[in-house]
Amino acid sequence: MSDPRNPQPTTLYEMIGGAGTVRSMVEAFYPKVQSHPLIGPLFPDNIDPVKEKQYLFLTQFFGGPPLYSEQYGHPMMRARHLPFEITPQRADAWLGCMKEALAEIGMEAGLAELVLQRLQGPAYHFVNKEG
Questions:
Q1: Euclidean distance between CA atoms 30 and 48, whole angstroms
Q2: Which of 95, 99, 116, 129 has the fewest Cβ atoms surrounding its Cβ within 10 A?
Q3: How would you class 111 by CB atoms within 10 Å of its CB: exposed for 0-12, middle for 13-18, buried for 19 or more?
Q4: Per-residue pLDDT for 63 more than 80?
Q5: Within 13 Å and on the Cβ side, how many CA atoms surround 74?
Q6: Average pLDDT of the chain?
Q7: For the segment 8-59, what is each residue's pLDDT rounded down to a tens digit?
Q8: What is the rounded distance in angstroms from the CA atom of residue 36 to the CA atom of residue 59?
Q9: Helices (H), 1-131
Q10: What count of other Cβ atoms lies within 10 Å of the Cβ of residue 91?
């Protein structure tokens, strides 16, 4: 949270604009994912529950309220992704779709770079199969 004596944002969540921006990111991101030939097949046809979980997770991951943990417990994201073959190429594709989504919503380049840097760790942490 921001310090009332210093109105500068203190978390990435605040820096990017909070809930509205995270929601916009998720809404722009998933059509790209679904149409991507390498990662689209990993996702269900009804993407709405996935989008909602992503919104909850990213809110928490970027330093906002712990929405994901409040609803689902500890994220345990690597374990939740183990049933899927996540290759380095799929991690790259996921990050590429996010980069496109950030550009689509008009996120300032420096902030978009921070977001992508923050997401690289988990994206590659989920890799469980070599390409």
A1: 9
A2: 129
A3: middle
A4: yes
A5: 3
A6: 92
A7: 778 999 999 999 999 999 999 999 999 999 999 999 999 999 999 999 999 9
A8: 24
A9: 12-16, 19-35, 48-61, 67-72, 77-81, 88-104, 109-125
A10: 20
Superfamily (CATH H level) for 12-125: Globins (1.10.490.10)
Do residues 128 and 89 lie in contact, with contact meaning Cβ atoms separated by under 8 Å? no
- Contact status, residue 58 vs residue 16, Cβ threshold 8 Å: no
Identify the CA nearest to 59 among candidates 24, 86, 103: 24
Structure tokens of 88? 């380095």
Sequence length of the chain is: 131
Query: Residue ranges of the domains in the chain?
Result: 12-125
Tell me which amino acid residue 19 is. A
| pTM of the predicted structure, to 2 decimals | 0.89
